[in-house]
Amino acid sequence: MKRRSRTYRVALGVVALGVALAVILAPGWSLAGPAAPKLLNAVKWDYPPKFNNVTVTVVGDAGHNLKPYEFWKDHFAKAGITVKIVEIPFEGVYEKEKTEFVAGTGAFDVVTFYPAFIGDFASNGYLEPLDTLMNKQPASVWNPNQADVLPPFRELYNKWGGKTYALTIDGDVLIMIYRKDLFEDAGEKAAFRAKYNKDLRPPETWDDWLQVGAFFTRKKGQKLAGKVLERDFYGSAEFAKRGFSFAWFVDRWAATGELYFDQNMVPRVNSPAAVNALQNFVDSLKNAPPDVRGYGYDELRDALIKGNVAMVVQWTDVPKKGADPSESQVVGKLGVGRVPGLSIGGRVNHRAMMPVGRVVAVAASSKNKDAAYWVAKHVAYDTSLENVSTFLTGLDSYRASHLAHPEAYTMFKNAAEARVYLDGLKVALADGYPEIFIPGAAQYEDALDLHVNKALAGQETPKQALDAVAQEWNAITQRLGQQKQVELWRQALKSYQALGLVK
């Protein structure tokens, strides 16, 4: 995604500019707007009966993920729709949208949000149920083909209480991305074998992550793959900035098989296994750039594609950025693999967090619900392959059809190279691990992120940090109603289990 510093938990101030899309420009857009990707015609869709010049206001986090509304502005105009956009800093999406919902201002028609909020927004009546709109005829106009959406995104991101309230536009999951040229270098392979008496390979476990990260960490003047380094080089880097660092901890913890809570909402986050997982994250910073605690999405992406680190765990759009020669210094040198795991009983268990993502929904207060729905559906289905297969956005694949068209990912050298990328994405999706997805998710995750970040900063030990999280989670549950939260958590668990995301 490209995201923006992925930190919605701390409101840093909200800038909401309700100006026509043709005028409002995200960073990096030209006055003429971005050139639309080539229409691939993978989906047969038709225009709705022309609306009478209605205005649909779309709200979303500022940046390149709003570009589809510019790509397809001619489509909206042909349908009799003028799209206006309100851009919000990534950090302020929840607070701004929640504030408008509670106040009943009716400011937005199409709302973009992170799917962990769906329990909050849908259960409070802020969103319009979409099932009736989805079933209107003709299907080529109204049907978003939800059967094509991969099950975790369809069932968790889009539904609440058995109804569909949102459509996925961004399917996030974490993946390991590494410099395959370094792992394949004969000199580096020989040096690793001499030092560790085993072959140099992309890390399979989090212990391997530490070992390989330490091996590749070098000082200016030392050699790397036969070349003298002109600057320090680091073995690994992760998202360690306040706001979403908790997801990189959960990658490690989830591999143990433990869940956020037990059946009665008793937190399991301070278990011995969780403490060990956080200690591993803390230890990994020894092999990372010294400013890594300021790394959000952009900094982590750049550390890799500017040639400063050997490995990252990052969202799946980054290899597309790494294949863009206008941006990347490592074109053709990146490999993808599973997020490292934990060896249990002789078998490595891998879990990859599915943090953030994006969905679009129709506000219950919208006065133009049909037009708003068609705008959302057009981005979420009709043009979705074009939207996720370009490096102009940070939107990640979420449909089976997205994985079946390697020829669409033209930033790669050829379809075979794109196929390798998509196969890696499939594996990552199979390892996917969900966010909390019940009302209060923003509060639970913010508390976790706060103390994970304190552990990374050395302000708390991993045990102190996670003990504090457990206390705060209990307090949040009490504020929201213990029994209600228990019931909702048990429903969420059933969904997770039915999708195979947890056992």
Short description:
This protein has 503 residues and is an alpha+beta fold. The protein contains 20 helices and 17 strands.
Please describe the topology of this protein:
Layout: E1 19-20, E2 54-61, H1 67-71, H2 73-78, E3 81-88, H3 93-103, E4 110-113, H4 118-123, H5 131-134, H6 139-142, H7 151-157, E5 159-160, E6 163-164, E7 167-170, E8 174-179, H8 180-183, H9 186-196, H10 206-216, E9 223-224, E10 227-228, H11 246-254, H12 272-284, H13 297-305, E11 311-315, H14 318-322, E12 334-337, E13 341-344, E14 347-350, E15 352-353, E16 358-362, H15 369-382, H16 384-388, H17 415-430, E17 432-433, H18 441-456, H19 462-480, H20 482-498
Parallel strand pairs: 2-3, 2-4, 15-17
Antiparallel strand pairs: 1-3, 4-16, 5-6, 7-16, 8-11, 8-12, 9-10, 13-14
Helix pairs in contact: 11-12, 18-19
Structure, explained:
By secondary structure, this protein is α+β, with helices and mostly antiparallel strands. The chain folds into two domains: 19-173 and 356-404, D-Maltodextrin-Binding Protein, domain 2 (3-Layer(aba) Sandwich); 235-338 and 409-503, 3-Layer(aba) Sandwich (D-Maltodextrin-Binding Protein, domain 2), CATH 3.40.190.10. The chain has 20 helices and 17 strands. The chain has a six-stranded mixed sheet, sandwiched between helices. A three-stranded antiparallel sheet has the order 11-8-12. A two-stranded antiparallel sheet has the order 5-6. Strand 13 and strand 14 form a beta hairpin. Helix 11 crosses helix 12 and helix 18 packs antiparallel against helix 19 (462-480). The radius of gyration is 22 Å and the shape is globular.
